[in-house]
Amino acid sequence: MLIKYWPTETKIPFMRYRYVGVVLSVIMMVASVYLVMTRGLNLGVDFAGGSVVELRQTDSVTVADVRDRIPGGLTVNSATDSNGAELVVIRFGEVDASLLGPEFAELTDEEKADRASAASNTFVVNTLKQEFGLTDQDILRNDSVGPKVSGELFREGLIALGVATIMMFLYIAFRYSWSYAVGGIAALIHDAIGTIGLFSLLQIQFDLTTIAALLTIIGYSVNDSVVVFDRIREIRRKYKQMPATEVIDIATNQTLSRTFLTGGTTLIAILAIAIFGGPVLQGMSVAMIWGIIIGTYSSIYFAAAIVLMLGVDINRKPVEDTPGFEAMP
After folding, report:
1. Which domains can be identified in the chain, with CATH numbers?
2. Which of 66, 144, 159, 274 has the largest CB neighbor count within 10 A?
3. What is the per-residue pLDDT across 179-190, written as a single tens digit (0 to 9) for each?
């Protein structure tokens, strides 16, 4: 019913404010880089290594009790799951080697480096069971990743982002021209840096699900930009003497309803994940919500503005008259 209230034809002068949009985007990217350099990222167990153990909080199992009764310098916090239940969340890397028993002390240095993470996890879990009388069913989550594996995961995640970016650049350059490719990739980098900056600002856990969300944002951002680019090219072929600013404004207005309907329906699906997906999917859902918002913005005010600055017709053969439009300006 709401769709019928959407105007059939809009004439918003987007490119009139392109410099404001570009300046805001540059400020956001610089601020994001600054935040990552100063505050860093709250890397999850996937990338930082270590273990996470979750228990249901009860009268006899509280955050304070776990801190007092479990040695090893653990980080213990409270959290709430999707059902509203209070949890005790225990994060730790490698506990003091003296706590791991004589068998661990007899290992070589190389064997200690390989087994320290798993041995620390076993020590903490066994101590929790002994101190609080817990069983395996009482431990809601027990994830452990060694430093070698976490380093490989982080490196492979960055490689995946890099390969995706290069392939997108080649696709757009092949389909359009290098000016469009630069505009599309600039918007893609804009969205990725802005999302990482948000994670640094709010210290949301950055893990493998976040990398998956970033790859999804990259695809969404490029798809949005390509839709606008397609319409720019179509209009340019029809109205070859029309100023480039006007061409981009018409193309953006003609794709506006599609952009908002696609973004709106996608947001509804992601909001459902954010509300009902629980803490495990929280980082991914936040990244995708933010990515959809700035992806829509960047396809209009960043990608199109850069294409306008570089030239919509650059490196292209002269456009041919389209039958029926020869007399058009």
Report:
1. 14-43+149-310 (1.20.1640.10), 50-145 (3.30.70)
2. 66
3. 888 888 888 888
